[in-house]
Automatic annotation (TrEMBL):
It comes from the Bacteria. The keyword Transferase does not apply. Residues 4-179 form the Flavodoxin-like fold domain. It comes from Ruegeria meonggei. One of its GO terms (cellular component) is cytosol. The lineage of its organism: Bacteria, Pseudomonadati, Pseudomonadota, Alphaproteobacteria, Rhodobacterales. Belongs to the NAD(P)H dehydrogenase (quinone) family. This is Flavodoxin-like fold domain-containing protein. The keyword Nucleotide-binding does not apply. GO terms for molecular function: NAD(P)H dehydrogenase (quinone) activity.
Length: 197
């Protein structure tokens, strides 16, 4: 297997979380198999996560932290995002990072369009893995919520800027896991990291 350049984004805003454990586990396993890894913790980043009154022609300049992470996105072959689902969506700081950092001219091109008229993605040729934790049972996520967050992240966020395919690993019951669950989850993440998928 050819070594990959892997960006791991721990998308939990807290310093201590399952998302952080999964990010570190994936990174350790990938490094052990010869891949180049950059690990970023959302909790370490200082930036204004409010897009505010800006628009695509006059947006806030990126803070150094956002510029560095965006350069990491551009550098990567493969993205790993670890995040909880909160209120059916992404944590506010993580969504703010996306709102601020995914800007035209760097991640998509509004001057050129795809065959169906969408702005052309600028981060093509990259793949992604999202490791998602939640308290929502998997069957409820599929049947009732119709995997809304998964579709949003896959199609409207990562797919919009060029990451394809995006694969998902979903762990339910994360707030009060059953005995042995966390250990099994960590083992699964380590296997995925070793394979760098």
């Amino acid at each position: 297997m050819q070594p990959k350049k892997i960006l791991i984004l721990d998308g939990h805003p807290a310093e201590s979380s399952l998302s952080r454990v999964f990010a570190q586990t994936y990174g350790d396993a990938a490094r052990a198999n010869g891949h180049e890894v950059r690990l970023v913790h959302l909790s370490d980043l200082q930036f204004d996560h409010d897009f505010g009154q800006g628009n695509y022609h006059d947006f806030k300049p990126l803070e150094p932290a956002l510029e560095t992470v965006l350069q990491d996105f551009e550098w990567s072959d493969h993205l790993v995002l670890t995040t909880p689902m909160w209120w059916g969506g992404l944590p506010a700081k993580l969504k703010g990072l996306i709102d601020r950092m995914f800007i035209p001219g760097r991640t998509f091109d509004t001057r050129n369009t795809t065959k169906i008229g969408l702005p052309a993605p600028m981060l093509t040729g990259r793949t992604a893995r999202v490791i998602l934790t939640s308290d929502t049972p998997g069957w409820f996520m599929r049947l009732i919520y119709r995997q809304a967050l998964i579709r949003q992240v896959r199609d409207q966020i990562l797919g919009f800027v060029g990451f394809k395919p995006t694969r998902f690993t979903y762990f339910a019951g994360a707030s009060y896991p059953k005995p042995g669950s966390v250990e099994r989850w960590i083992s699964r993440v380590a296997k995925i990291g070793a394979a760098a998928v």
